[in-house]
Amino acid sequence: MTNKLTITILLIILSFPFLVFCSTELPVPAAEEGKKGVLLFHSGFEPGSRIRHSANPLTGDDDITGKDVSLPAPNDWVEDLDNSKNIGRFNLQYQGGDTTQRFARIIPEPGNPSNHVLHFWLNEANVDGSKGRIQANLYGAETGMKEFYQSVRIFLPDDFLMVRKFPQKISWLTIAEFWNNITWNQSVPHRFRITLGIGKPVDWESDLCFILDGQDCELFENGSQKYTTLWKEINQNVKVPVGKWFTMEYYYKEGDAKTGRFWMAIQPEGGERQVVFDVTHFTHNSGDKNPDGVTDFNPLKLYTSKALIDFMRSNGKALQIYWDDFKLWRDRTP
């Protein structure tokens, strides 16, 4: 018995360093740390961020200038966005109309005046009387981004419940768009876009869902365009939150049918994060052998048909989105 007890004690002593080592949290490899990426810009639209309105509200675009003093750098709308060669100049585009039809404003959050948000409001078709547009542009980067990651908080007010009752399917209610390359310039070859939106898959009242597609574009000399859909996704399992803040994150990686990736997730306030899309497919024009990254995209957007806008107005509602805590990274992955 004595010999057995002695051997047992020796085994416990010898194994103790191994047990301690196994129970200690190992350092995260450098490769994993790198996935956190480099923050390029962030803003919560707090004081210091201000909208500069166009001198001609019927034809001009608005802009956001200044610094969000509630955050450390990079928080400067001009230095970190407009003056960056790798991101593109920021502005707010309407393509027509006046403030009785649409506007973008920085305001105190309704019900929480200590927090400031960017408010998009669309009540009438402001583009040629056929559609409505409010969008944030990041256009004209000198060097295209081949990989980037964005996060933004979104609030869709109760008016959005009326969208559920629109008497037709909804396949056009865009909330973000990515161009590789732009489709409105004759001299630019290999045009392509990814469109992220909110949809309704049936003609009767239903929950809203997220929709996504990737399209090649052909531009003709008369200015007309032809889009060819390469892939299309709809997620009817993850419902679009209405009346509750949620965080939306997306990741873009330039590539072909095997290497391109678009990933998106949402996390309702107080809830779990849900992956909405994880697509491996073309994220540039299918005929482009030498893609050069994204130089133009719309990180915040509200763009839809006259029919939906008119339906909302006829029911005493307007299309509205509140945005907060906008962040953009490079070298970050899901």
Helix content: 10-25%
Question: Structural class of the helix and strand makeup?
Answer: mainly beta
Please give the alpha-carbon distance between the first and last residues.
58 Å
Quantity of strands, as a count: 17
Tell me, what's the shape?
Answer: globular
Task: Please tell me about this protein's structure.
- With 334 residues, this protein is mainly beta.
- It has one domain: Sandwich (Jelly Rolls), CATH 2.60.120.
- It is 12% helix and 44% strand.
- The protein is built from four helices and 17 strands.
- Strands 1, 5, 6, 8, 13, 14, 15 and 17 form an eight-stranded antiparallel β-sheet that branches.
- The longest helix is centred in the N-terminal third of the chain and has 22 residues.
- The radius of gyration is 24 Å and the shape is globular.
- The N terminus is likely disordered.
Which features does this protein show?
mainly beta; disordered N terminus; seven-stranded antiparallel sheet; single chain
